[in-house]
Amino acid sequence: EIVLTQSPDTLSLSPGERATLSCRASQTFSSTYLTWFQQKPGQAPRLLIYGASNRATGIPDRFSGSGSGTDFTLTISRLEPEDFAVYYCQRYGGSRPWTFGQGTKVEIK
Amino acid sequence: EVQLVESGGGLVQPGGSLRLSCAASRFTFSKYSMNWVRQAPGKGLEWVSYINSDSRTIYYADSVKGRFTTSRDNAKNSLYLQMNSLRAEDTAVYYCARDREEILLDYYYYYMDVWGEGTTVTVSS
């Protein structure tokens, strides 16, 4: 099983600051399988990035993804108030199970 | 707008059974593979099961294999999760999510693009 480890667990930042979230895999896999989601309390996950770097429809360009192999990054260039949430990476495709990282909470400092 | 709506959750005793449904609307359900994903209270997301568009390919997480059965009825635009031999650790919000496969510049991309709001399953005596 490929394990995804996200860091940090919690990121405390102010609106307007830059957020950098990491997702590290225990084994290398195709970047086309790497997805990022945003989840707010009481809501379903929302697709942000697929294929490691492709923004989903309607996602603002302050969200960007990068990486390959075992190291992937989600960057939020300037945090807006609505961006404070939990973010998950997921490997979807290839060998099963299709695991999620444990999540990174971006909270207001 | 494309929509998925889960139903069927509730309180069930350990060892009991429950059947979840996911109703799809505003897209051609029969052309898409689907997934079930769950989230235990205060915890992260866990992929549970996948079914392809014609039900010929079905996958399960090890944690539910042999106890859960995923099916679909394309004529009714519906996805199902039959859960048997339920355990306390199955307590979670269960989401259905649509599979997308996209080709960009000769690369194949896979992701879950549309999610329902979830239905809550509580396993407790």
Overview of this protein structure:
The complex is a heterodimer of chains A (109) and B (125). Chain A is mostly beta strands. Chain A has no helices and 10 strands. In chain A, the strands form 2 sheets. In chain A, strands 2-10-9-4-5-6 form a 6-stranded mixed β-sheet, with no helix packed on it. In chain A, a hairpin with a 3-residue loop joins strand 5 and strand 6. The model of chain A has no long low-confidence stretch (mean pLDDT 96). With 125 residues, chain B is mainly beta. Chain B is 0% helix and 57% strand. Chain B contains no helices and 11 strands. In chain B, a hairpin with a 4-residue loop joins strand 7 and strand 8. The interface between A and B is medium-sized, with 26 and 24 residues.
Which properties best describe this structure?
heterodimer, A: 109 residues, mainly beta, six-stranded mixed β-sheet, four-stranded antiparallel β-sheet, 0% helix, globular, B: 125 residues, seven-stranded mixed β-sheet, 11 strands
Q: In terms of per-residue confidence, which ranges of chain A show pLDDT below 50 for 5 or more consecutive residues?
A: none
Helix content of chain A: under 10%
Query: Count the strands of chain B?
Result: 11
Per DSSP, the total helix count of chain A is 0
- Along the chain, the helix and strand elements of chain A come as EEEEEEEEEE
Quaternary arrangement of the chains shown? heterodimer
Q: Which structural category fits the helices and strands of chain B?
A: mainly beta
Uncertain segments of chain B? none
Radius of gyration of chain B: 15 Å
Name the largest protein-protein interface in this structure: A-B, 26 and 24 residues
Q: What is the number of helices of chain B? A: 0
Give the termini separation of chain B. 39 Å
